[in-house]
Amino acid sequence: MAVENYDVVIVGAGPVGLMLSTCLARWGYKIKHIDNRPEPTATGRADGIQPRSLDLLRNMGLKRKIMAHDPAKVYEVAFWDPNSKGIHRTGTWASCPKFIDARYPFTTLLHQGLIERVFIEDIEKNGVQVQRPWTITGFKNDGKDPTYPVQVSISHVDDTHSETVRTKYLFSGEGARSFVRDQLGVKIKYKDPISHVWGVMDGVVRTNFPDIKMKCTIHSDAGSIMVIPRENNMVRLYIQVASSTDKDWDPRKTFTVEEVQEHAKQVLRPYTISWDRIEWYSVYPIGQGIAERYTLDERVFMGGDACHTHSPKAGQGMNTAFLDAVNLAWKIHHVESGFANRSILSTYESERKLIAETLLDFDARYAKLFSARIPSAGEVAGASSAQNPAEENEFVKTFKASCEFTSGYGVAYLPNTVNWGAEHPAQHPLFLNYQKGTSLRTGRILTPATVTRVVDANVVHLEQQIPLNGSYRMYIMAGEPSKTSAPIKDFATHISNPTSFYSIFAHKDTSVDRYHELHNPHNDFISVCTVFNAKRADIHIDEMLPPVFARYRDHVFADDVWDQRVPDAKAAAHAKMGLSEEDGGVVIVRPDGYVGAVVKLEGGAGTCEALNKYFSVITGKRLGEERAAL
Amino acid sequence: MAVENYDVVIVGAGPVGLMLSTCLARWGYKIKHIDNRPEPTATGRADGIQPRSLDLLRNMGLKRKIMAHDPAKVYEVAFWDPNSKGIHRTGTWASCPKFIDARYPFTTLLHQGLIERVFIEDIEKNGVQVQRPWTITGFKNDGKDPTYPVQVSISHVDDTHSETVRTKYLFSGEGARSFVRDQLGVKIKYKDPISHVWGVMDGVVRTNFPDIKMKCTIHSDAGSIMVIPRENNMVRLYIQVASSTDKDWDPRKTFTVEEVQEHAKQVLRPYTISWDRIEWYSVYPIGQGIAERYTLDERVFMGGDACHTHSPKAGQGMNTAFLDAVNLAWKIHHVESGFANRSILSTYESERKLIAETLLDFDARYAKLFSARIPSAGEVAGASSAQNPAEENEFVKTFKASCEFTSGYGVAYLPNTVNWGAEHPAQHPLFLNYQKGTSLRTGRILTPATVTRVVDANVVHLEQQIPLNGSYRMYIMAGEPSKTSAPIKDFATHISNPTSFYSIFAHKDTSVDRYHELHNPHNDFISVCTVFNAKRADIHIDEMLPPVFARYRDHVFADDVWDQRVPDAKAAAHAKMGLSEEDGGVVIVRPDGYVGAVVKLEGGAGTCEALNKYFSVITGKRLGEERAAL
């Protein structure tokens, strides 16, 4: 029997596997996706979607479907501490405070199953079915077929059927107990030697506890509980039932529902609580571990819980999984479609492992903040109002740094091939960085900005105008038209050179009708937006832009919407990015929304030259005028 | 055979019939709904949802389903006039300018069929099926059964089956050709003697006309066209193909698709246009007519196009239909559920006919503005920037007034039984009006305001917190807690009197478990919100509110969100309603969102007394302390 070949074999249909499958299925890859559970998650499990993840889901056109389930939204966290009567609230603070420039400054709570279904519908539309209940039984990167170097064996969980396939990539999204990781011999490094057993319970309650619809951390003399509001009028209670620091530590220790309910009643006194129904209940051990490698050969990859496990307290699990998957998806896509050098695949581990390490460090600090130290009322009030930064103490500062991280906006990838930096092989005087010419930082998310679309006068979110289509996003922040008219013309001339980073990947098949193509009229790897510092009605696309940019009619914007964060700016988007409102600049954003490079917009060949150099490193091609002159 | 009895028989499943059916089905009424078309609208027809209608759809929980179709959004209108080269743009202006405080300052464009389907799904969930293709063949209010006084005969359009039923109410949403209206002998009064024949065409085009994604009015030497962007990359072109002022006027005059396309090509020169596909095309005559009566007996009612016809230019048809239906729905509900006096039914005609008359007047003026007079560039620039009100001319002023009307926010019902006014039978010194103590006007929509919900710290839209549940909305704008603590306590004491407007309708069946009931814990006719001028974290519901108001835990808000419209206010919601930020006030809002009465919040019995008087008039009951003393 002929062995079937796939682009990717994905093991596990939890958040990380589904996100990878969704991206690659949309971009046309042939996928074998298996999961060892007979059905998708029915209740419970992960539930917190952080602000940054909501941006990502919106960018994929999936946010509305998530929101259709009417999830709970957490804007603030309340802290309760013991007092003589039982417990009292010592303070509250924003879960995503105003100093973070977030579109959606809240955590969205919805059970994992509902979220999974949104992804499953999407991959099915693109012809991928999750094969259930099937499991992986073996694999090897034997290179027998250079195109499909990895052989994978899978079988039905009851062992009645089995298949052997070949693939370009194998991905393990199997969760903490990963067969692939075990087979590779990749060790888990335990950051914090302390393990915990957690009980978690979703249900509908009756209580006079006033903060039952807030996220709460409750410390009482009877123990601690974390409260998380849920969709459908439910509430989740997290309770740490055992710790490896306990004298009688037993990682298999368990509690009945009734015991946890009784425990909750004790903790909440003087308030009362009772349950109308319990939807889900589980007890599970958690260790703070991180895989030493995410891949050994850049053919077999792992992500999500297979690579990092930690407490559920900060609601980071699913979010980290999503970002693992997206990070890998576009890199595989760029390599397989011939855009990028295979070496960019190494940045998956270096970027995502750093985030996992930061997450585990944070998780340890977070646990310490909540468990070991009870903030006083005065300290918390300082965090809540934050009107006088001078009054902030160490506790508040730590909290603030944590907020940025937990919201997902703290992710900061280090300079590497795709994130320009002072040590990047591409060097050119026009590169800008946050110390010179821009406040944007490579490896961090593009600053959100509200602008007016010229063609239809719609007020829109600039950062959402290019969907997650696998393309780099080139934002020409075009400053004042009178100042930048010549530089933009020059830039257009140079990128139209057939060897430029923009033109070298031009669509080969020119017979395809691309009239209605909004995002990729010229090539599949770069989508362009232009933003003028001008009033919408004063922008005449065909008169003010060379044809190569004017072609992106739906991506021309007026930077004319006032923003409370930069109240004195005439062009708020320019100002928020720290670019000259007169002279603008060119911002290259990776397909996953992180800034790759920022270049000055200047007359002559320089702007294009700098970008040719940057993309030469990524693509491994010699780009630009030099070669044209050969 | 026994004749089946219904609460309402609805004829016609267009926007007006479906909206009525949706409201009444949700509120538990037994409905017979017929339509003479075999299928719902497949393409074309009405398509513009105005800002106010979007508020209403959101209030019904239907907005997200409408938006899931990715409708086009019109933020601005562009004006094109003839010049030597063909046409040129003379200016643009906002379709819902900033001076209107709208949540959604745009028109939403989506074909009627997609909108209808959202309603049809909703009524089906409530057990109502539209019976198709069936038509009405006769009816009479013979009173033979006092509970179901109207007999209605209906039959399949091919006459194979027929039924006779009895009903409390018969509603005609049949459109311009109304059998019911004809049978009643109600005349159409033609406001403007001029009739027109319109051609309308939906399709996907290729053009270099720069404003193809804007709403445009184009005058050229070759004729005039109106451009409306649509969902799915389509565009609608409206073209007036004949007018009764023409020498060769023929109301049956028609044009082929090709003729209209050729016409469009001429009008758009020097720009080019061609069509990839045509989705819908129609030619139809329009007269500006209004029915002399909307009901003769307050048992048989009409609404929507059966009562008013006009040009499609301002996109008002469906919106007026929606508001006709909602207006009637809650009044029927209040009468049939024993809350209101039957006399409130007369306000349906008086309120909605006034709006139709305003619409027709406006339509005539609008047509004149667009057809008879071409604005000069200078005038349009004035409207567009509007930075110096002193420079505004008559044209701009007319436009501005029109914007308020076309957005749906211009609706202003006159004082009557439900809209308090100086002549209202209920008189009490504590009533406030826009000349004294508030900027709210009875008969107009409640001012939108953003506030923070206390229980979960969610930032929410106050005006949306009570859904369209058929209840009056009582907003206790509670000012500063230190100032209003005593008045609120007194108010609670007096409305807890069994004969008060609030308590007299208390749920009879106290055995029902209403623990999770958010909106109607005490009665079915009034839902309460309380808004404090305080920071969220400083509001302790159980300590600061008497139990009757504290019971609405999910409806207690902090007026602590800054608003650009009242930048210096501490409590923006209070300020926008023109109420004292210290002393607050009580705002009664009708079930459809229009202000009914505003009363001062004062210590003692006065606040409750004033509202007892107001609701005595509506309910026909003697409410309040007097009776309790009997």
Range of helix content of chain A = 25-40%
Strand order of the largest sheet of chain A: 6-5-13-14-15-12-16-18
**CATH architecture type of the largest domain in chain A:** 3-Layer(bba) Sandwich
Give the oligomer, counting copies of the same chain as homo and different chains as hetero: homodimer
Could you characterize the architecture of this molecule?
The structure is a homodimer of 630-residue chains. In chain A, 50% of the residues are buried. An 8-stranded mixed β-sheet of chain A has the order 6-5-13-14-15-12-16-18. An 8-stranded mixed β-sheet of chain A has the order 19-26-25-22-23-24-20-21. In chain A, strands 1, 2, 8, 9, 10, 11 and 17 form a 7-stranded mixed β-sheet that branches. Residues 372-393 of chain A have low confidence and may be disordered. Chain A is globular and about 75 Å long. Chain A is α+β, with helices and mostly antiparallel strands. At the A-B interface, strand 4 and strand 6 of A face strand 4 and strand 6 of B.
Topology readout:
The structure is a homodimer of 630-residue chains.
Chain A: E1 4-11, H1 15-26, E2 31-34, E3 48-49, H2 51-59, H3 63-67, E4 72-74, E5 76-83, E6 86-94, E7 107-109, H4 112-125, E8 130-131, E9 134-141, E10 150-156, E11 162-172, H5 179-184, E12 188-207, E13 215-220, E14 223-229, E15 235-243, H6 257-268, E16 273-291, E17 300-302, E18 308-309, H7 317-336, H8 346-371, H9 377-385, H10 394-406, E19 431-432, E20 450-453, E21 459-461, E22 472-477, H11 481-495, E23 526-532, H12 541-544, H13 547-550, E24 556-558, H14 572-576, E25 585-589, E26 595-599, H15 606-619, H16 625-629
Parallel strand pairs in A: 1-2, 1-11, 2-8, 5-13, 11-17, 22-23, 23-24
Antiparallel strand pairs in A: 3-7, 4-7, 5-6, 9-10, 10-11, 12-15, 12-16, 13-14, 14-15, 16-18, 19-26, 20-21, 20-24, 22-25, 25-26
Helix pairs in contact in A: 1-4, 1-7, 7-8, 9-10
